[in-house]
Specification:
single chain, alpha/beta, six-stranded mixed β-sheet, about 35% helix
């Protein structure tokens, strides 16, 4: 019998790094990219069901796209309780957004200090290669040192957008299966 499990992924990063664009392109299977910037002022949620390879199971992911402006932090962090995973996004062409990744990661992980929260680090806007300020090595090193998987994307070019979300869904599914096995062994 197929199993559907639900996962809550918190999407964080500075304003204008492309968090909403990544979520919308992923949610719409690449059919929607808003060319006009609209600042997220709270939390916007999108859902998508992902089938797990080699099983009949699927993970329904809830992406909580959070505002990146400091002024909204207290408001949006109220939606971050019990996360299944974290998506930290920065603009590969803006070094300051990369420098702030630590702050965003810490804020989400503070919601569950005694729990390992799997996550990904996304370098977005890699289509702006001529303006790139953060090297892939710097991104990979940060991700590795914080237990995150590293991905490069371009929401605008719809390049590599699915991979981080599919990765997180599969990681969440593995953790779910491990917990089921642990519970079975206890009974």
């Amino acid at each position: 019998m197929p199993t559907l499990i639900r996962a809550k992924f918190i999407v964080v990063g500075d304003a204008s790094v492309g968090k909403s664009s990544l979520c919308q392109v992923f949610h719409s299977d690449g059919s929607f990219f808003n060319k006009n910037y609209t600042m997220t002022t709270g939390v916007e949620m999108v859902t998508k069901q992902i089938n797990i390879p080699d099983t009949k199971d699927s993970v329904e992911i809830y992406l909580y796209d959070s505002a990146g402006k400091e002024i909204f932090t207290d408001h949006v962090s109220k939606f971050w309780d019990h996360p299944s995973g974290v998506v930290v996004v920065y603009d590969a062409a803006t070094e300051a957004t990369f420098s702030n990744c630590q702050k965003w990661l810490d804020r989400v992980r503070q919601t569950e200090p005694n729990l390992h929260i799997p996550g990904v680090l996304i370098a977005n806007k890699v289509d702006l290669d001529q303006r790139r300020r953060v090297s892939p090595k710097a991104g990979k090193d940060f991700a590795l040192s914080h237990g995150l998987a590293y991905f490069e994307c371009s929401a605008k070019e719809m390049q590599g957008v699915d991979a981080p979300f599919y990765f997180l869904a599969n990681e969440f599914y593995k953790l779910y299966q491990e917990r089921i096995e642990t519970l079975k062994s206890l009974s």
